[in-house]
Amino acid sequence: MNFRARESQAGLRDFARLIYRGGLFRKYVALFVAIVCVTLIVNGILGILFSYEEKKQSLSRLQRQQAELAAVKIGQFIKEIEGQLGWTTQLPWSADMLDVRYDALRLFRQVPAIRELSYLDATGREQLRLSRTAVDVVHSLEDFSEDLRFIEAVANKVYYGPVYFLESEPFMILAMASNRRDGGVIVAEINLKLIREVVSHIDVGEHGQVYVIDERARIIAHRDISLVLRNTDVSQLPQVKLARSGSDSSMLQATDGEDMLGRPVLAAYAQVAPLGWLVFVELPKSEAYAPLNRSIVLSIILLAAGFVVAIMSGLYLARKMIDPIDKLRVGAMRIGGGDLSHRISIKTNDELEALGEQFNRWPDTSRNRMQPLSGRSQSVLRSLNSPMRPNRAFSPWRATICASRCMHWGCSLHICARRSNHGNGRRRSSGSMQRSVK
Amino acid sequence: MRRRQFIAALGGAAIAWASTAQAQTTPLIAWLDGGGQPRPDSVVEFRRGLNELGYVEGHDVAIRIYGVERPEQVSEAITALMRDSAAAIFVNANWKAVKAAKAATSTLPIVFADGSGDPVKLGIVESLARPRGNVTGVSMYTGTLVPKRLELLRRVVPNVTTIAFLTNPNNLGSELDTMDAEAAARDMGQDFLVVHASTMEEINAAFETIARRGAGALLTDTDVFFNRRRGELAALAARYRLPVCYSSRPYVLAGGLMSYSDDRAATLRRAGVYTGRVLRGDKPADLPILLPTKFQFVINLKTGKALGLDLQWRSVLAYADEVIE
Fold first, then answer.
1. Using the beta-carbon criterion (under 8 Å), do A168 and B318 form an inter-chain contact?
2. Which of A9, A282, A378, A415 could covalently link to A265 via disulfide, CB atoms 3.0 to 4.6 Å apart?
3. Whole-prediction pTM value?
C-alpha cells in the first residue's frame, strides 16, 4: 500500500469517525439533505407527470389536426374534379358530337385523374363515351336508367359512387346532373391512384405514414403505391376497427394502434367529408414518444445531480457548524481539566466566536480574583477548607463541561457565561470565606 | 483424392463467398435490351428512378447492358449475367425475353418495362395486383392502346379503305395485339390487313405488300425491334407516302407522322424505382404491376404536310398533346 492510498484511507476513517461520532453532525446532514431532497423529488415527479400528460395531449392533438388537414386536402382533390366537371354540365351534349368532344378534351387535359367520361341523356341512355385508353363510343344507347349513378345524380345533383378496383387500380364514379333543361347526367370515372400525389406531400415525422381507406377498409391512397395496387385490406387493424365502430371519443384524440407490420403506432384519423372515406395519420410510438422519454431522462439526471449537490453541501455546512462547537467542547474540557493556558481559537465571526472569547478570558479573570487571597488568607482558607484543591474552585466549570456534552448549548453556555462574568459561583463559595476572614 | 476434393470445394466456397461479398458492396443490375443498346435518354430516366431510392450508378449500384436483339441471345445473356452475379435483372425488351429470363431463374428478381399485351394473359405474372414469383414491372399497357391508335389514325385519314397492321411475330404480345386490333377494326367497319416482320428485309417486304394490297395507312405494333428501326420505318413510310401511327413518341421525333402511347420517360423512371426497391430487398411478388396514367398523342406537322394530309384543328390537332413542326 503506497502512501497516497494510506492517506486516503486515513481520510476516509476520519470522515467515518466524523459521521459516527458526532450525533449533531449526522442530524444536521440528515436534516439538510431531507429538506432539499424532498423538495427536489416532489417537484421533479410532479413536473414529469404534468409535462408528460401535457405533451402527450398536445402530440395527440397535433396528430389529429394533421389527419383533419389531410382529410380536407383529399376532399379538395375530389371537389376540384367536381368543379371541373361542373362546367361540362352546361354544355349542349346532345348537339354536334364533334363540338362536345372538343370541349370534353379540355376536361381530360385539366383533370388527369379522369379516365372516362360519358353522357347519359334524360332517359338514362348513354349517348357518348370518351376514354383515354379505349375507343370512343357514340350512341351506344346502353341503359343506365336503373343505375344509381343516374338515379342519384338526377335526385341530388351529384353522386359519389363506391370505390371499385379494376385489376389493381382503384376507381370511383362521379356523376353530375346537367344544368340544362334537356336534362341528362355527366358521368366521370376517376382513377383514385392519383390521390397519391396529395398523400405523398403530407409528412408525418420521419417514419410516419398517411393513408386513406374506403368504406370497405381497403387502402386507396398511400405514399407506397404498391399497397394501393395490392388492394390491401386493413379492416383488422385496431385503430381502423375503432374508427369504423364510430365512437365519438375516438375522433378527438390519437389512439394506440398497429401498423401493417404489427408495430405499435400512435394513430389519428379524420373523415373525408362527402365520401365516407377515412384518413389515418400514424406515427411509430418509438418516434412519437421519443421527445417525452428524453425529457424524463433529463429530469431524472437533474434529480440525481440535485441529490449529489444536496448531500455534498449538507456535509459541508454541517461540518462548518460542528467544527467550532467541537473546538469549544475540547477547549472547555482542557481548561476545565486545569490547563488554564489553553486558548480556544474560533474565527467564525459570530456568537460561537464570542463564546470562545469568553472562555479564553475566564482563566485570566479568575486568576486576578484569586490574587488578593495571599498570605494569611491562604492559610486561613486552607485551614477552613482543607480538602479544597485549586481545581475544586472550578467545580462550576465541570458542570459546564458536562453541559457542553448535551444538546442545549445555548442554555448551558449562558449559565456558565453568567457565572464567569460575575464570579457568582466562586463568590458564593468563597464569599463566606472572605467574610469570615474580615 | 478426398483431400484434394475437399480443398477444391473449400476454394470454390471461398470464391463464391468473395463474389457475393463483392455483389453486396455494389449490386449489379443486368439490363437486357431488346434493341441491342438502349437509348441514352432511357438510361437517364432509369437512373433518375434509381436515384429516387438513393441509388447512384457507379457509386452504390452498377448497370451492365446485355444485348438481346434475337430471342436466342436471351439464354446466353442470362448465363453471362449469372456469371457476373447480377443482383437484379431489368428487361427492356419484348415478352419473349422476359419469359426466357423467368425460365432461367426463379430467385433473381426481374423487373420489366416493355412489351405490348397483357402480362397476365401472357402468363408472365399471376395478376396485376399480386404478381407472385420473381417478376414484376411497369406494363406499358400499349396492347390495349392499339384500338385507340386505330381510332386516332382514322381521324387523320378518314377516307382510307384499308388500314394495315405491322407486327413482329417474335414478340409474344403480337398475337394478342393483332386480335385486339382486328376486333376494333371490325367494330369500326374498317378493312384490315395484318403484315409480319422480324428483320429489316421482312419490313421492306411488308411495305411492298401494303402497297400492292392498296392499304392507305399503317399502324405499327409496340416492339423493341421496331423501336430501333424507327428511322428506317419513317423513311419507308415517306417513300411509300403512307400515313403511319406508331407506338411511341421517338418515332415521331425521327420523322414519323403520329403516335399515341404512355409517357415512356415516366415508364422508365418508374422501372428504375422498382429496380431500386427490389435491390433494397422488396420482393417482386409484393410489387404490383404499374400501369401508366398519362398518355401522349404526338403529331408531326411537317410529315403531315409532306404526305399532303389535311390536318384539321377541331378533329385532330386539338387532341394532340404535342405538335412537332
1. no
2. A282
3. 0.72
